[in-house]
Amino acid sequence: MVTTDRAPSESGVAAPAPAEQIFELRGVTVSYAGVPAVRDISLDVRAREITALIGPSGCGKSTLLRTLNRMNDLIPRARVEGSVRYHGEDLYAPGVDLVQVRRRIGMVFQKPNPFPKSIHDNVAFGPRVLGMDGDLDEIVERALRRAALWDEVKDRLKANAFGISGGQQQRLCIARALAVSPDVILMDEPCSALDPISTSRIEDLMTELKEDYSIVIVTHNMQQAARVSDRTGFFTVDPDDRAGRMVEFDVTDRIFTNPADPRTEAYVTGKVG
Fold first, then answer.
1. pLDDT in tens, 134-167
2. Is 138 among the domain residues?
3. Nearest CA to 211 among 46, 16, 50, 48?
4. Which of 182, 187, 185, 242 is nearest to 220 (CA)?
5. Residues 213-236: tens digit of each pLDDT
6. H or E segment at 130?
7. Do residues 114 and 168 touch, judged by C-beta distance below 8 A?
8. Which of 157, 215, 219, 222 can bridge 50 by disulfide, Cβ–Cβ 3.0-4.6 Å?
9. How many structural domains comprise the chain?
10. Exposed, middle or buried by CB within 10 Å (0-12, 13-18, 19+), for 13?
11. Which pTM does this prediction carry?
12. In a domain, 125, yes or no
């Protein structure tokens, strides 16, 4: 695995200025029923950046993403080894409050999954359950505005969330995550079920949101990673044990124009799938 923060290369691509580290992963291996799904991953996720994880199906991208808010805890016989630190604290230490973990580290899934409730109640659900201070209607409006959805739904907040389009439903799910004031937003293939126009809106939204949030996105769409992310990790499947491994992690422009590993170059140029 190659992970670099090199000086500007011959291509003239310079690394972004250092930023606060949100996550520090060192030697992370995730296994299901004793079988490693992803092995020996080390990378850092920085504040107010979009970090993309790319690679072929089955290489462990989504598995790794779920370690960042302990969603793998919900899977029987899942085991996480190595170090996962969030703002310097051990995310897997005994006594860690999982409710707070998942409040601070929100998740948006591949397919829109609104609750069978009104648009308003979808966004209000988290703040209501957590007993957050503040006017609930104001919290809902603020989250919908941040998700670039308010103008489209402000006159139908009591309508069932299933009545809006797929792209709007996905932005509603983003608003639902934003309503509880997260620090990080994890996105697992958030545009794979959307049409190109809705995809473009979600990408524009991600770019806006990174001003205030750190985002980690799993995507099969290399063009999407190139368009929106600041740093990219390329994963592949080890032919010996079929576990996912990270080949290279670097500034996105460099991953796509001057990668350090020939396997990365072969993947991003389409020589291998």
1. 999 999 999 999 999 999 999 999 999 999 999 9
2. no
3. 48
4. 187
5. 999 999 999 999 999 999 999 999
6. helix 119-130
7. no
8. 215
9. 1
10. middle
11. 0.90
12. no
